[in-house]
C-alpha cells in the first residue's frame, strides 16, 4: 500500500495535477474512486461535483499529492478546454481491454496531450476492466518492472517481455492484446498498465509509478499545479510575487473533495 | 453521436464570460443545460488568443509571411481581446469564490493603478492614491488640496447610507456629486481623478446627475476596499489571461451536468406560440466536414450572446481598441509589470476617458521581455479612430506591433426576452473591469428565472444534477 494514512514524516510534499482522459464508460472515475477511497474508508463518500479529488502517494523520499481532475464529460463532444491540460504534470489515459475502439480513442488523447500539454508530462496508458478477462487475477506482473523504478525516464517503462505470454486470447472478453498496447506505449514513451478498478488490481501501482516518474526537478521548480488547495502558505495579503489566494475567504469550507 | 438529450431546461449560446457564469450557476441550481458555441474554442469575445491567431484575426499578415515567428512560441502568448481587469473586492471575485471556480485558476495582482494629468510633453503620470494617507503624499495635488482630498476620502470611508448623521448635512439621496465635491471644495483636477480613476466613470455624465452621489461613493469604496485587499492595486488578473475565466465556469457547469458542444452551428430556432421551443443545430467535425452531426432538441429557454440573435440586438455605441505589443514597461510607471493607466477625458479634450490595461510575462500571457497593452476608449466621431487613441499611444512609447480593427459595435438586447424566452446578453463594454458584466449576469438571471441570483453558499446545499 503506497499511501500514508498520516502525515507523521516530515518528507517534502508536492502537489501534482493529474488529468484523466479516455472514452466514456471505460472506468476513468472508477479507477480514481478506487485509488482515493483506499484512504477514505471510514469517512464519508467524497463529494461528487468536487473541483477535483486529491490523494497522497508516499514515496521513500517524498510525498506526492495528486490533484486528480475528471473531464466532467467535456470530452464527449470534443469540448475539453485548454485549461484542463494546463500545467498537468501527469495524465491517465484509460481504455477498456474489451473494447478496441476505446484504444483508438486513447491514442487520439495521447496525441492531443503531446500537442497541447506541457512537454514534460508523464502519461500512463491504462487498459481497464481486466476482471473481464482470463488474466483477471494475475496481471500485477505486467507492471512488475516499473514498480519502484525511481525517477526513471518515461521511455524506459517496464513492460517486460514475459507479458507476451498473456496475449493468448482464449474466449474471454479481452479484445485488446497486451502486446498491442505495450508496443504502442513503448513507441510513444508511455507508462503502461492493465488494471481492474473493480478488484483493485494494479490501481495503486499505476499511481505509484506515475509518482515515481515525475522528475524531481519539476517538483522543485514548479509550484505544483495548483489553483487553490495546493497552496496553503498564501495569506490574505500579497506574497512576494504577488500571487493572491482568493480561496482564503472561505477557507472553512475548503475541505470539499479532499481525501487527505 | 450519443448523449444529446431530447430536451433541456436551458440552451446557452456562446461561451463568453457572461454566458459561462450563467451556465455554471444554472447547472449548480439543478437545471439541465446544453451549452453551444459556433467557434471551436471557449470564450467568444472574451477569449485569449495566441499571437498567430491575433495576427490572422487582425489581418496584419502579407501572403507568405509569418510575422509571429519572431515572437517565440505562439502558445506562450495568451492575448486578451477584451481589456478588463477584476476588482479584488468586486462581484466577479465574489462569484468566483462562492462557486469554487477559484480552484481552477490562479490570480496575481496588477502591479499599479495610474492616472495621467495634463497632455502632450507636459503630461505627468501618478499613482492613484488609495486612501486618505496616500492622498497626503500624492503628487497629484498641492498641499492644501491634499488636506481637502484626505478629508473627503475619510468621509467616504465613514459614510453610511442609512445614517444621515454621516451625510455631512447633504440630502445624499437626491443631491448631485457636484454638490458633494463643492461641499469639500475640491479642485477640478481632484474631481477628475476621483471620478475617473477611483469611481471609474468613463465620462463626466455622473457629476450633475441628481441622486448619483451614493453610487459614486460606493464606487470609490469598492476601489478603496479592493486596493486594501492585496496592496498594490485594486485589480487582480488570472494567470494565462482572461480567457481562463469562461473556461473555469464552463467546467463548473460541466461538473454539475452541463453538456458542452463547441464547433456547432445553430441552423434554426424553433418556436411554439411565439415562445422558443427548441433548436436545430449541426456539430461540425474538425477534420472531416462531411462528418457533421445534425441534431434537434427541445428547450424552454435560450440564453445567448447578441451575435446569435442580431435581430434582437441593437448597437449602443462603438468601442475603439488597439492591442499593442511592447518590449519595455511604460515610462513613469515605476517599471510596473502590469498596470491600469487612465487618461481622464478632460485632460486630453475628450468626452470619454482613454484606458490602458497592461499585463506581461508576470501573468504568463507572453514570453519574458514583452508587455501587452490594450488602449481603448469609446468612439466620439467617425473620424480616424487612430487619432482618438493617440494620447494613449503617446503614453506607451515605442510599439512593436499594433493590432487595431474597425470600431467595435456594442450591443444590447432590444427586449427583455419575456415574450420569446430568449434572453440576450450585452457586449463587453468600455469599462475597465467586470462590474458591469456581473450586473448583466444578474439581470439575465432575473429575467430568465424570475429570481434574484444569490451566489453566497451556492455550492454547499446542491446536489449533482446527473452523473
TrEMBL record, chain A:
Gene3D superfamilies, sorted: P-loop containing nucleotide triphosphate hydrolases
Pfam families documented for this protein: Ras
GO function terms (MF aspect): GTP binding; GTPase activity
Domain of life assignment: Eukaryota
InterPro entries: P-loop_NTPase, Small_GTP-bd, Small_GTPase
SUPFAM superfamilies cross-referenced by the UniProt entry: P-loop containing nucleoside triphosphate hydrolases (SSF52540)
Ranges where the record places region Disordered: 141-181, 218-241
Keywords: Nucleotide-binding
Annotated SMART domains: RAB, RAN, RAS, RHO
Coiled-coil segments: none
PANTHER family hit by this protein: PTHR47978
Protein name (Swiss-Prot/TrEMBL): Vacuolar protein sorting-associated protein 21
UniProtKB/TrEMBL annotation, chain B:
GO MF annotation, one: Rab GDP-dissociation inhibitor activity
Coiled coil: none
Family annotation (Pfam families): GDI (PF00996)
Top-level taxonomic group: Eukaryota
Biological process annotations from GO: protein transport; small GTPase-mediated signal transduction; vesicle-mediated transport
Record GO cellular component, one term: cytoplasm
Family: Belongs to the Rab GDI family.
Protein's name in the database: Rab GDP dissociation inhibitor
Source organism: Penicillium olsonii
Amino acid at each position: 500500500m503506497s499511501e500514508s494514512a498520516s502525515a507523521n514524516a516530515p518528507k517534502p510534499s508536492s502537489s501534482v495535477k493529474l488529468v484523466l482522459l479516455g472514452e466514456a464508460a471505460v472506468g476513468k472515475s472508477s479507477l480514481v474512486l478506487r485509488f482515493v477511497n483506499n484512504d477514505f474508508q471510514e469517512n464519508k463518500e467524497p463529494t461528487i461535483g468536487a473541483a477535483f479529488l486529491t490523494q497522497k502517494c508516499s514515496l521513500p523520499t517524498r510525498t506526492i499529492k495528486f490533484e486528480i481532475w475528471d473531464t466532467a464529460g467535456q470530452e464527449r463532444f470534443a469540448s475539453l478546454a485548454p485549461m484542463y491540460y494546463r500545467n498537468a504534470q501527469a495524465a491517465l489515459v484509460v481504455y477498456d481491454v474489451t473494447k478496441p475502439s476505446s484504444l483508438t480513442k486513447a491514442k487520439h488523447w495521447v496525441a492531443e496531450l503531446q500537442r497541447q500539454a506541457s512537454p514534460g508530462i508523464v502519461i500512463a496508458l491504462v487498459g481497464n476492466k481486466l476482471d473481464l478477462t482470463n488474466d483477471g487475477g494475475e496481471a500485477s506482473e505486467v507492471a512488475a518492472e516499473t514498480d519502484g523504478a525511481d525517477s526513471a525516464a518515461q521511455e524506459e517503462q517496464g513492460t517486460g517481455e514475459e507479458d507476451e505470454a498473456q496475449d493468448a486470447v482464449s474466449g474471454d472478453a479481452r479484445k485488446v492484446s497486451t502486446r498491442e498496447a505495450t508496443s504502442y506505449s513503448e513507441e510513444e514513451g508511455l507508462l503502461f498498465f492493465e488494471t481492474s478498478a473493480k478488484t483493485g488490481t494494479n490501481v495503486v501501482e499505476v499511481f505509484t509509478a506515475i509518482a515515481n516518474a515525475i522528475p524531481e526537478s519539476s517538483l522543485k521548480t514548479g509550484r505544483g499545479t495548483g489553483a487553490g488547495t495546493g497552496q496553503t502558505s498564501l495569506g490574505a495579503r500579497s506574497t512576494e510575487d504577488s500571487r493572491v489566494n482568493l480561496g482564503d475567504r472561505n477557507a472553512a469550507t475548503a475541505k470539499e473533495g479532499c481525501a487527505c | 453521436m450519443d448523449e444529446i438529450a431530447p430536451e433541456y431546461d436551458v440552451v446557452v449560446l456562446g461561451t463568453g464570460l457572461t454566458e459561462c457564469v450563467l451556465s455554471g450557476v444554472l447547472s449548480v441550481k439543478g437545471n439541465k443545460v446544453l451549452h453551444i458555441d459556433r467557434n471551436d474554442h471557449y470564450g467568444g469575445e472574451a477569449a485569449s488568443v495566441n499571437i498567430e491567431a491575433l495576427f490572422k484575426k487582425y489581418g496584419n499578415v502579407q501572403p507568405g509571411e509569418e510575422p509571429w515567428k519572431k515572437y517565440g512560441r505562439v502558445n506562450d502568448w495568451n492575448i486578451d481581446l477584451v481589456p478588463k481587469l477584476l476588482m479584488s473586492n468586486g462581484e466577479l471575485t465574489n462569484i468566483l469564490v462562492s462557486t469554487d471556480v477559484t480552484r481552477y485558476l490562479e490570480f496575481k495582482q496588477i502591479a499599479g493603478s495610474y492616472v495621467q494629468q495634463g497632455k502632450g510633453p507636459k503630461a505627468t503620470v501618478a499613482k492613484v492614491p488609495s486612501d486618505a494617507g496616500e492622498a497626503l503624499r500624492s503628487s497629484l495635488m498641492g498641499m492644501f488640496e491634499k488636506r481637502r482630498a484626505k478629508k473627503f476620502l475619510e468621509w467616504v470611508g465613514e459614510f453610511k447610507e442609512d445614517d444621515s448623521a454621516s451625510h455631512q448635512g447633504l440630502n445624499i439621496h437626491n443631491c448631485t456629486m457636484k454638490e458633494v465635491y463643492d461641499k469639500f471644495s475640491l479642485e477640478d483636477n481632484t474631481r477628475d481623478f476621483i471620478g475617473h480613476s477611483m469611481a471609474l466613470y468613463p465620462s463626466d455624465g455622473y457629476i450633475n446627475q441628481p441622486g448619483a452621489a451614493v453610487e459614486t461613493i460606493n464606487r470609490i469604496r469598492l476601489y478603496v476596499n479592493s486596493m486594501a485587499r492585496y496592496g498594490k492595486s485594486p485589480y487582480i488578473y488570472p494567470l494565462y489571461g482572461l480567457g481562463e475565466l469562461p473556461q473555469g465556469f464552463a467546467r463548473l457547469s460541466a461538473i454539475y451536468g452541463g453538456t458542452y458542444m463547441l464547433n456547432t452551428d445553430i441552423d434554426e430556432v424553433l418556436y411554439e406560440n411565439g415562445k422558443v421551443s427548441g433548436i436545430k443545430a449541426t456539430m461540425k467535425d474538425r477534420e472531416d466536414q462531411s462528418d457533421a452531426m445534425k441534431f434537434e432538441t427541445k428547450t424552454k429557454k435560450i440564453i445567448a450572446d447578441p451575435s446569435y440573435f442580431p435581430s434582437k440586438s441593437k448597437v449602443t455605441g462603438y468601442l475603439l481598441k488597439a492591442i499593442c505589443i511592447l518590449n519595455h514597461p511604460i515610462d513613469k510607471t515605476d517599471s510596473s509589470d502590469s498596470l491600469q493607466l487612465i487618461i481622464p477625458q478632460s485632460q486630453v479634450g475628450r468626452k470619454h476617458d482613454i484606458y490602458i490595461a497592461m499585463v506581461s510575462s508576470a501573468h504568463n500571457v507572453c514570453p519574458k521581455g514583452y508587455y501587452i497593452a490594450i488602449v481603448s476608449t469609446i468612439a466620439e466621431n467617425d473620424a480616424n479612430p487612430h487619432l482618438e487613441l493617440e494620447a494613449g499611444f503617446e503614453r506607451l512609447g515605442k510599439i512593436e506591433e499594433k493590432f487595431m480593427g474597425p470600431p467595435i459595435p456594442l450591443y444590447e438586447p432590444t427586449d427583455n426576452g419575456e415574450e420569446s424566452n430568449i434572453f440576450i446578453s450585452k457586449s463587453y463594454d468600455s469599462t475597465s473591469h467586470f462590474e458591469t458584466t456581473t450586473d448583466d449576469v444578474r439581470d439575465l438571471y432575473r429575467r430568465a428565472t424570475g429570481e434574484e441570483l444569490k451566489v453566497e453558499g451556492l455550492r454547499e446545499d446542491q446536489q449533482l444534477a446527473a452523473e
